[in-house]
Amino acid sequence: MASARTPGSTAARKGRLSRELVLAKALELVDAEGLDALTMRRLGQELGRDPMSLYRYAENRAALLDGVTELVLNQLSIQPKDPDWKAQLRHIAHSLRSLALQHPNVVPLLVTRPLSTPLGMRPLGTLRPLEQILSLLIEAGFAPPDALHVYRAYYGFLYGHILNELQEFVVDPEENEALLRLGLHRLPPREFPRLRSLGPDLATYDGSAELDQGLSILLSGLESQLSVHAG
User: Fold this and answer.
1) Which ranges in the chain are annotated with CATH 1.10.357.10?
2) Fold (topology level) of 80-169+205-230
3) Where in the chain is the DNA-binding region found (predicted)?
4) Which of 14, 68, 126, 196 has the most crowded CB, counting CB atoms within 10 A?
C-alpha cells in the first residue's frame, strides 16, 4: 500500500529554492538558449515551480539579468593588493576572456547593459571589479583620476577584444584553404586585396595570443605614463 503523501513532500523532493539556485538555473538557461529564453515563466518551468514563487528572489526579469551578470562576474578573481599591477591586469584580462568564452550569451549583459543604468544604481556585484581595479592602480602609484582613465582604456580594449574574438566567423571549418574557409573568396579582389591576402593570418586567429600582444602594448604605455608622473 502506497504511503500517504505528507504536506510539503513534493517541495522537499524538489529541494528548497534559494537565490543562488534560481540564478544558477537562469545562467544555465541563458547559456543553452540565449537571453531571449530567460523569462519568469520559462525559468519556473525549468525549476518545476510556479513562476510567481520566483519573484521572492528577483523582482522582475531585469533583476534576473542583473543577477546573472553578477553571478558571472563573481567568478572573476581580482587581487587589489598585488604589487605587480601589470601581472594582475594581465591575469584579470585572461580570466574575463575565459568567462566570456564559457558564457558568450552573457557578454551583451557585461558590455551593453550597464550603459542603460546610472553607475550608482548598478548591482553591487558589477561594480566590485571597478572598485578593485581602481584600488590596484592607485596602490601602484596612479593618481585616482589617472587610475580611472587607465580603467576605461583597459576595459575598452578588453571588451573590444572579446567582442572581436566572439564574432570570428568560419564559413566552412572543414575547408583547408583559408580564403574558402572564411568566405573571403566572395570579396572582389580589387576592392579588398589586403583583407584577402591576410586570409591565412585570419584563419589561424589565436585569441589568447592576440590578447597578450594587445595587453603588452597597452601596459607598456601605462608603465611609461606612471614613470613620467613618478619622476
Assistant:
1) 80-169+205-230
2) Tetracycline Repressor; domain 2 (1.10.357)
3) 39-58
4) 68
